[in-house]
Amino acid sequence: MPGKLKVKIVAGRHLPVMDRASDLTDAFVEVKFGNTTFKTDVYLKSLNPQWNSEWFKFEVDDEDLQDEPLQITVLDHDTYSANDAIGKVYIDIDPLLYSEAATVISGWFPIYDTIHGIRGEINVVVKVDLFNDLNRFRQSSCGVKFFCTTSIPKCYRAVIIHGFVEELVVNEDPEYQWIDRIRTPRASNEARQRLISLMSGELQRKIGLKVLEMRGNAVVGYLQCFDLEGESGLVVRAIGTACTLDKLSSPAAFLPACNSPSKEMKEIPFNEDPNPNTHSSGPSTPLKNQTYSFSPSKSYSRQSSSSDTDLSLTPKTAPYPQGPRIYLCPSSPSLSCGSLHLKKSCLLLSESSLTPHHSSLVSPVLRKSVSFSEELFLAASGMGSGSAGKEGGPFKALLRQQTQSALEQREFPFFTLTAFPPGFLVHVGGVVSARSVKLLDRIHNPDEPETRDAWWAEIRQEIKSHAKALGCHAVVGYSESTSICEEVCILSASGTAAVLNPRFLQDGTVEGCLEQRLEENLPTRCGFCHIPYDELNMPFPAHLTYCYNCRKQKVPDVLFTTIDLPTDATVIGKGCLIQARLCRLKKKAQAEANATAISNLLPFMEYEVHTQLMNKLKLKGMNALFGLRIQITVGENMLMGLASATGVYLAALPTPGGIQIAGKTPNDGSYEQHISHMQKKINDTIAKNKELYEINPPEISEEIIGSPIPEPRQRSRLLRSQSESSDEVTELDLSHGKKDAFVLEIDDTDAMEDVHSLLTDVPPPSGFYSCNTEIMPGINNWTSEIQMFTSVRVIRLSSLNLTNQALNKNFNDLCENLLKSLYFKLRSMIPCCLCHVNFTVSLPEDELIQVTVTAVAITFDKNQALQTTKTPVEKSLQRASTDNEELLQFPLELCSDSLPSHPFPPAKAMTVEKASPVGDGNFRNRSAPPCANSTVGVVKMTPLSFIPGAKITKYLGIINMFFIRETTSLREEGGVSGFLHAFIAEVFAMVRAHVAALGGNAVVSYIMKQCVFMENPNKNQAQCLINVSGDAVVFVRESDLEVVSSQQPTTNCQSSCTEGEVTT
Amino acid sequence: MTSELDIFVGNTTLIDEDVYRLWLDGYSVTDAVALRVRSGILEQTGATAAVLQSDTMDHYRTFHMLERLLHAPPKLLHQLIFQIPPSRQALLIERYYAFDEAFVREVLGKKLSKGTKKDLDDISTKTGITLKSCRRQVVEEMRGSLVDNIQQHFLLSDRLARDYAAIVFFANNRFETGKKKLQYLSFGDFAFCAELMIQNWTLGAVDSQMDDMDMDLDKEFLQDLKELKVLVADKDLLDLHKSLVCTALRGKLGVFSEMEANFKNLSRGLVNVAAKLTHNKDVRDLFVDLVEKFVEPCRSDHWPLSDVRFFLNQYSASVHSLDGFRHQALWDRYMGTLRGCLLRLYHD
């Protein structure tokens, strides 16, 4: 009996009237856990019953504790007929299972009914007594902490980042079971809610076990999703990054997690982690081992270079897997094997078979994967590998060698994190993504979810090989998603290929000291931009220049990534949200034909989305995208593509070229005029955007730079060539209308439309900025005023004019209008930035498009903003000039024995602070109005991992909730808008109530993962499913902290206050 | 392309004060949008009409959902569905229960029966409903001091609560306020009088144990008022009273002669009003009587307000010097309130 769960039902309030005659209710409560049920007494005739029950005690396995939710049902007692249910509360008791989180769950919970919504509240107290279990073969994983946050949680320090964990469980969907025909909608909904709750509990437990196996103690960047596959079942899957975290005890130690690596290593033994010898011995005397590292360097470097070539030559070797994978080239859609599994991975269309000439004509981006059907979204690339680097080449090679060996032992060297401890990310290669179209079939045996596992394994394998081709051994910012329509399912995975510093990875054994030195050698501010692949064996023809920051290494001219902007990156000006939107009509078809049609369309869509992104990026005068997320949604008769990312100007990358418009018939005078008019408009827009986003990179003349640049920037600018285009292409005279990705050729109305659509994106009104990353580059003086919101829009397309253009326009207008509405609604918060803007598109029916947006608006202090806008430029100038000095200093430091890590890391720490709004003490909240406490404590919600102006002192556990709401009186509830508005408000309320009951006052990393809305206006019915998750936390205002810090431990004070408020 | 569904839900519920006012004033979404357009908001923000339409709809939907809670303001404080900062909650409630003076003046004293409810709808749906719900609940369920009650249960500001108390008090005692003679009086005048009467003439005023009886006039007190009749019935007393007042006011009053001439009439009027209050019907006519018996005569003689004040002060005070008169306390309780009321009522 490893655990005892204790529950007390205190009281209810605002109950609905269940007895029409007396206008009152005779309520009682059933408390159920597993198969055990307790009941309270009936409290007669009251809408505010006071049960004040005894403690109900459940003695259960910890396995059950993890899987099962506590189920509380409020009923109305009826002497003669069956008792009527008022509603239910499901409480996930997982947060009580690990020591550092909540100790008690106590508070008012909304009583929820899937038909009527929230009906009153109930006050419940829940406690768990856990007994120590020494059984090695236990099935539970109590004690493993889960975080939705995709960075190292603020009050922890990453000791080791172990890597990727994934799991999925499948079951039949109760909605599609035969019994559903005879049970009430309520019973069916509740069965579904309960099942999903159980499945996510089980999933979490299983992932926890994997983490324990890896000797980790936490999962960061935990992302759990549901696939409602309809007839074929229900899949709950999750991915995350296993870590060993160490709690930072004193609030003063909040500064960047890894000031001194050696210290960190020494501390490992203190961790619970029971494997003693991974790190402790070697690293503790780092410097003595230095010499050792040099001698083998030669051989290492040779090895590594060979492995490099290996990678870059992948097209030839193409060591493609084995196993059950079937490739289907778009050009040859015949299902050679008759299998139902259509496999198609794509990116920008580089299939040679499809467009034979493309390598010269089309996208610069694709090239290499010509030999096989897959292809990479290689938007960019990173830094010179060993050969490109001047000094430290051998080190780097060595470093790579080691990391590789460390990572290669892993099946999938993936990380779901999007932000990293300083020094973790060495180089970034570019975005890698893979998609695959599958036909769903019934899951026959829920205990063996092999098919789904195999599907994902294939995709991951592909991602891994794409990363290799980019000279990277790991993928960061990794995520997976699906889009399902009828029996067709598109599985997608994407991430950013990267080279990581092995210091944080577990398997490093020898290299402790070496890494330290290596780390110091790496230019930290621009290092991640440097290409990771070999310059001479590039995976694709890219346009490289020397880094504009350090002048030492090669950088690509455009960089696309799925991660957040590294905190130490130097950015010029501000960033902005960039979206590419695209629709493609598709014939209605069944099964395999349908899957084939979709497979054929995908590469075109990817290509166009990419082109659009690139064009818009240029139009903004920027050169890098962060947080890129491309969503492809499949519907009955169309495919939708929506890509969102945050564009920035990285100081390390070259100035982007403009956009050149070319006409096809150069002799036509009026046409020419028209073209030049357009060209002027585009140029004006670029100029305007540069001003708007304050992009004024320091003009450094080539002479000052002094280093040879293979492609004179001047020329490339003149030619307006896309940086990514190969050298050959740039040499060509573009005025003759040679196709280049960034020469827009207007040869028909379609192209005209494209150009127009480029120009229709209106910038946000003044005072507004938007981005889809955690932080807005260029703004770092947030105030504490935040407003998280969800906005949903559904439009019905008139079926008459369903052409691709009309669709595109409709979709574009939908998104633009939605944004405009948001700006209008939030105008009182100006100056303000919409952060973490997350768009989700779905196609619930033939002619319906649904767009859901969740984001947070944060006000910032304008005055400070004005001051700071200038600093990046100055800083970068400064940096450029001091860089050489710094580099010179390293050798000295290396010689001076025990000091090496100290002089540099503190400096780094400071820059981190400056660049990140998360940094401590960075902004003082003078204006922060204390949240006046009403009877209901305020709970903040934000999709970000931090709360501006506040410090997170405690993580209370993961919130993962799934709700279904159904109505048979749609009109009476205010139509679809009224229905959904009320439901979303209720979901927020339930999330807040759970957080408050845990003793928390905020949810961070909040995400609405699913919002599936179905309506049948003719029957006056609608149904909606919502899945949300986030991390419950306790935060303390920084202003408060300063006041109280000397007097008492604020954490306790704050949390007890919150609890007090909630329970009263 | 038509918008099927369009919603915005914030973790903190957004309240637009301007839209709230339009909603309270009973404008339809279309009208509200038109009014907002006219306010120049489009130019200020660069928004489009479609955006404004969507925004207005959204706010209206929110208010509609909030209305259920506004009917029982304490619920608004405890509910979990809408996270609204306290200051905003207060604003919502205050505005919701704020009323149009002209309207309330109309309703005042009418029994809110089925028939009038219909009339109310005609006058102003919104205010009608709020008034109804407020009155019903106060009358049916509440115990304790009227003003405190309203304040606690409806979380209204002090002033607004007092106004409501006045309305309830008037409605409960069915004071006649609709007569033509009384049309010149504003709601504020009545509310002022009501407050004085609640403070001094009700049961709750004398006995804190009985403070749930705030709404009814102290019956015993009304009975006792008959005793005052001696002031006018006993001719000696009346003469003495008159001479005391005249002596004190001689030279201080611009309208001395008129006062002297009218003294007996005025005094008779005031005392008779008191004596008659035992009957419900006469209670109802209190204001009519006061205006007829005192305000109008004085006004016809063009008494300035300051003179009225001097007179009433002296009139009440002099009674203390009447040795034969034994109901000093009773007189003070009556006259103290009446003096305040009369002064308030005395205007054009």
What does this structure look like?
The complex is a heterodimer of chains A (1064) and B (348). Chain A is α+β, with helices and mostly antiparallel strands and 1064 residues long. In chain A, 57% of the residues are buried. Helix content of chain A is 29%, strand content 28%. Chain B has 348 residues and is mainly alpha-helical. Chain B has 21 helices and one strand. At the A-B interface, strand 25, helix 17, strand 28 and helix 20 of A face strand 1, helix 4, helix 5 and helix 6 of B. Strand 25 (782-796) of chain A pairs antiparallel with strand 1 (2-10) of chain B.
The chain pair forming the largest interface, with residue counts per chain, is: A-B, 56 and 41 residues
What's the number of extended β-strand segments of chain A?
31
Number of H- or I-type helical stretches of chain B: 21
List low-confidence stretches of chain B: 111-130, 132-144
Question: Given the helix and strand composition of chain A, which structural class is it?
Answer: alpha+beta
Major beta-sheet overview of chain B: none
Binned, the helix content of chain A reads 25-40%
Distance between the termini of chain A: 34 Å
In sequence order, what are the helices and strands of chain B, one letter per element?
Answer: EHHHHHHHHHHHHHHHHHHHHH
Shape of chain B: elongated
Low-confidence stretches of chain A: 251-395, 507-523, 701-741, 865-934, 1044-1064
Tell me the layout of helices and strands.
The complex is a heterodimer of chains A (1064) and B (348).
Chain A: E1 3-13, E2 27-33, E3 36-39, E4 56-60, H1 62-67, E5 70-76, E6 84-91, E7 105-113, E8 117-130, E9 145-146, E10 156-171, H2 185-213, E11 218-228, E12 234-247, H3 261-267, H4 290-294, H5 297-312, H6 314-317, H7 358-361, H8 393-408, E13 425-439, H9 450-469, E14 474-485, E15 488-500, H10 512-521, E16 544-546, E17 554-556, E18 559-560, E19 571-585, H11 591-619, E20 624-634, E21 638-650, E22 660-663, H12 669-692, H13 702-705, H14 713-719, H15 727-731, E23 743-746, H16 749-760, E24 768-770, E25 782-796, H17 804-825, E26 832-842, E27 848-860, H18 862-895, H19 904-915, E28 940-941, E29 950-967, H20 975-997, E30 1002-1016, E31 1021-1037, H21 1038-1044, H22 1050-1063
Parallel strand pairs in A: 9-11, 18-20, 22-23, 24-26, 28-30
Antiparallel strand pairs in A: 1-4, 1-8, 2-3, 2-5, 5-6, 7-8, 10-12, 11-12, 13-15, 14-15, 16-17, 19-21, 20-21, 25-27, 26-27, 29-31, 30-31
Chain B: E1 2-10, H1 17-24, H2 29-38, H3 41-45, H4 49-70, H5 73-78, H6 86-97, H7 101-107, H8 114-123, H9 125-141, H10 146-154, H11 158-173, H12 187-201, H13 203-206, H14 219-224, H15 230-233, H16 235-249, H17 256-276, H18 280-284, H19 286-300, H20 305-318, H21 328-345
Helix pairs in contact in B: 2-4, 8-9, 9-11, 10-11, 11-12, 12-21, 16-17, 16-20, 17-19, 20-21
